[in-house]
User: Fold this.
Amino acid sequence: MGLEQHFPALIIAILFGIAFFSPLLYRWARKISAPALITALTLALAMSISLLIQVTQGGNITYYLGGWPPPWGVELKIDLLRVYMLIIVLAVSTWIMIYALKDLEHELKTEMLGWYYSLYALLVGSMAGITLTNDLFNLFVLMEICAISACAIISIKEDRACLEASFKYLILSAMGTGCFLLGVAMIYMVTGHLNYDLVSEALPKAVELYPNNMFAAAALFIVAFGTKSALFPLHVWLPDAHASAPSPSSAMLSGVVIKIYAFALFIMFYQIFPRTLLDSIPLNEIVLWLASMGIMFGSIFAMVQVDLKKMLAYSSIGQIGYVFLGIGLDDSMAMAGGFYHLLVHAIMKSMLFMAAGVIIYSTGIRQIKQLGGIGQVLPVTMLAFTIGSASMIGLPGTGGLISKWYLALGALDIGRPIFVVIILASSLLNAVYYMPIIVNAFMQQEEFEHEAKPVPRQMLIPLIVGMAAIIFFGVFSRPVIVLLESAMQMFF
Amino acid sequence: MELLIKILHNYYYMVAILLFIIGMHTMLTHSNLIKKVIAMNIMDTSVFLLFVAIGYTYGGEAPIVREGSEVLYVNPLPGSLMLTGIVVAVSITAYALSLIVKIYRYYGTVDYDEICLIRSQE
Assistant:
């Protein structure tokens, strides 16, 4: 075996390591600092793909950090679902970073770039840790690292809007982690364990003995992860934070960071909490209805926005609702749909934010109204925007259709057709606010009246890759769905 | 009456929850940013206190194992976990305070309502 068995720890170590060295490299060897970051991200991605192969061949892997087995040490666990999340996180963040190298030059001061690389690597490393960890307290620490670095890649731009937005984000996510830690205390109080597996073994008895304690813990977890992943009534921080951040940060935050907490909530619900708890209080119903409200209201708020990035941010609130819908529906097909949406939305929302970034880079326009005729000057960017929007709406041939299809099938499967209506209605609403932009961009007769800088190739290639990926996942969805369905086997 | 005795018996949990609620309420409702940060610390501290209280055993000693003596120990795990928690809370506080310094430079105030007022006039 050799090195291969240490891959789970190495992925996290290499990302935290590069986070430490990036500012130093930027100071003393500026030329290699960006390639070093890309290399580290690619290495981590390669290791995660190797983990996928190991898991599909040899089953789940557990890794004891420092060689200490569970009751004493921290355990990392790799199963199909986690490795799927890990690959999404690493692949999307590598892809965004390649775009960011060029975009950041005009959005940040030059001396801040090294710090940005450092924060970015910290963020990716902590998210990789959240997917792999099998220990509640370890999850708490990684969530705090993730929260600080996510706020910091917004506030690094240092204009008035960014500072205020990132402070709001910081306070609300501190509230989220506070609630999470209290929930962990409730669980530790009755079980005496922090390891997921040991906790889930001990919990069925604990639920019988101390039901109120466990209800409180479940409620606190919903608030904690709901705040962090912008579940509907707790979404207030998201629009400002995601809209004012530099474009690569917006892509990262909207594309990946909010999803990771939805995934963590899923793990809490289906891996830690026993079935009896889920049946005795309507946790699933709460998540379902909050998600449905998020889907509707996110789209309605998005319609009235005048700022392009703000519209995309509100649209994220709607889209994260689909992932929660998958979690709440408690049906393996709907869950597969929810997790497929997680992948597709990570790609399409990142790409839409990148397209918005290119528009801002080239013309400096943020207002939707002024975008008329922009298709003539930025054809590739607007084509990417069109494909991304088509996938948001769920047109055939794009990934967005597949996830909605499976969610709808799952909803019908357990006899809740009302959610099919919600999915359909929200697709219509998505069309209402995405279509006018595209129609205006391409169909308008008059000339585009603003000046447009030429866009460097390094910014366009990630957009083309994104378009290809969306169409690929829209046409060849079978392998991923099969993988997800076999991953869901563990939970049912 | 029975409930009251139960509560009195477990008063430290009540105190922790009370502190948590005070912290959370202040954090979400006060408009002064510094007070928000203080409230955040109160909230975190309440959870730390709860954890440490969980780890205490009546009549327990400090968890140092001596050869040949069998005594009751206090659970060392929550204490060591909370050390990590305190470090995390300190770093969040430091970051929040540095953000407030920058916000003060741009807006000339640390009151959230006034910041909203300034932003709405732009």
About this structure: The mean pLDDT of chain B is 88. Residues 37 and 97 of chain B are 8 Å apart (CA to CA).
